[in-house]
Amino acid sequence: MPEMRFAVRWPDGVESSHYSPSLVMHDYLTTGSRYDVADFVARSSEALDAAGERVRAAYGFACTSAMASRDEIVRAATAYPDGEVTVLRMEPPLPVGAS
What global pTM score does this model have? Predict the structure, then answer.
């Protein structure tokens, strides 16, 4: 299962990097896009939950790293009652021809 990292910039300019055990993040976020904080938290949480379930389906156990990434994002978002989060990078990028 291909893993990935994605980097974001929070409303105050702070950047953070997060782990996903699956490329499923590409289904929920787009590099260069800006999302309201609440929308970003919802999208990334849903994506990381889906990624964790893919690990469970493949290996029979939950991915604690996906849960930790989700929790980091939720915790960080509490500092921003409004504003936008920008997705800076998603590595690896979505393979050419994939959608």
Answer: 0.91
